[in-house]
Every structure is written in C-alpha cells, then in structure tokens.
Design goal:
Radius of gyration: 42 Å
Number of helices: 3
Distance between the termini: 109 Å
Strand order of the largest sheet: 3-2-5-6
Number of domains: 3
Number of strands: 14
Shape: rod-shaped
Largest sheet: 4 strands, antiparallel
C-alpha cells in the first residue's frame, strides 16, 4: 500500500509541467493559450504538456509588434525567451510618397512596419524620381520609432505667372538701361559745355574725348533699352 502511494506521488511530481517565459525587452505582456498571464518574466504552473501557443507584445504596441509562437511543452520546467521586434512608422506630410527598403519598394506613406532586431536596413522615401529622405535604421528589441518626412514646398506656377515674370524681368532691365543712358547723356552734355567754355587746348581735348566717350556709352545703353523693351513685349505676346 505504501509502495503504491509512493509510486503515485513520484508519477505526480514527474508529470507536473511548468512554463517560464522571459522577454527582450523585459516587461512585455505574455499570453499563454490566449490567456493573459502578466508581464514577463512570468511562470505558468497550471498548464498541460503538449502544444502551447504563446504571444508576447508591448501593451502600447501589441497590434504591430507581437511575437507569436507555438511550442511543445515537456513534463517538468520549460524555459522560453522571446525577443520583440522593433517597429518603424514612416510619415510624409501631405504626400503619399513611395518607401524603399534595402533597394526594394515596400509601400507608400503612411507606413508602419516591424522588423526583427537583427541587422541594419537602408530606407529611402521618394516621389516623382526625387529622393525626399534617406536613412539607416537598426531595429531595437521592442522599440518604436517614427520618421517624419517633410517634402519641399513646390509652388505650382501657372503659364501666366511665368509670362508675367519673364516680361517683368525684361522690362526692368530695359528701364535700368534707359535711366543709365539718360544720366550718361547729361554728363556728356556737361563735358561738352566745359569743352566749349575752356581756353586751354590740352584741357579742351580731354573734355572733348570725355564727352564723346560718354555719348557713345549713352547711345549704347539706349539701344539696349530699345532691345529690352521689344523683348519684354515679345515675351508677353509669344509666351503661353
């Protein structure tokens, strides 16, 4: 009788199953057979040997960073260590840009991904052939990161806007040349008046050469004014 009781006791001890779950990072919530068992590390006592489903995840990001696995529990104590992936959220303000990971297109913004903490990844965000942002990301266990991409504010210019701008530039240049021509013409007249009033032959020759030089510059600038005015008019008429 005592022998049978001892045998039953030994069989009961041998058939006892225990599961100890640890996580990286520590403190992740643990579900065993869809039952919440608390934050890791946790030991589950009331469990039967055989197949067992386990999930660990951060309570803040459980929907995007879970670790699901199925293990076969043996009699005795079973030890399990699970590492949560890192998560990355990519946002592009006001634009659905393409996202490329390790030279492979994985979707468009906004995008939320999770990766095992194993190696570094190269990301690029681009649109219309223009790379908006490029960076490297090495996932940390259980960490959640956000990258916000701000595209350049491209101002859409209408054809009329371009026509007005081109004509305005040409008109401003021609106006500047007209003013300069008038100023040089005035200086040329003053130099000629001084030449006519001087009795010194050497000074007279110098003043005459100065008046002629200023007159040539004035005539050239006036010609530039006429060309610029014509260009402004043509730009306004011909440009779409």
């Amino acid at each position: 009788m005592c022998g049978q009781l001892l045998l039953a006791l030994l069989l009961g001890i041998a058939s006892h199953t225990r599961l100890h779950v640890a996580t990286v990072p520590t403190g992740l919530d643990v579900w065993v057979n869809e039952s919440m068992r608390g934050p890791a590390p946790v030991t589950v006592e009331d469990i039967a040997p055989g197949l067992c489903s386990i999930r660990v995840a951060s309570r803040h990001h459980w929907a995007i960073q879970p670790v699901d696995t199925v293990v076969h529990l043996r009699q005795g104590t079973n030890y399990l260590v699970l590492t949560a992936p890192g998560a990355l959220q990519i946002i592009c303000e006001g634009l659905a840009a393409m996202v490329e990971e390790d030279e492979r297109i994985i979707g468009h913004t906004p995008l939320l991904i999770s990766r095992a903490a194993s190696r570094r990844h190269r990301f690029r965000v681009w649109t219309d052939g223009i790379v908006l942002h490029q960076w490297d990301w090495t996932p940390s266990p259980g960490a959640f990161a956000t990258v916000s991409v701000f595209p350049p504010r491209l101002i859409a210019k209408s054809p009329r806007h371009g026509r007005i701008r081109g004509a305005a530039v040409a008109a401003a240049a021609s106006a500047a040349m007209a003013v300069a021509s008038a100023v040089l013409a005035r200086h040329a007249d003053d130099a000629f008046d001084d030449y006519a009033a001087t009795a010194n032959p050497d000074r007279g020759r110098t003043l005459f050469r100065r008046a002629r030089r200023l007159d040539r510059w004035s005539s050239g600038l006036w010609t530039g004014f006429e060309i610029g005015a014509a260009a402004a008019l043509v730009w306004w008429i011909v440009s779409p």
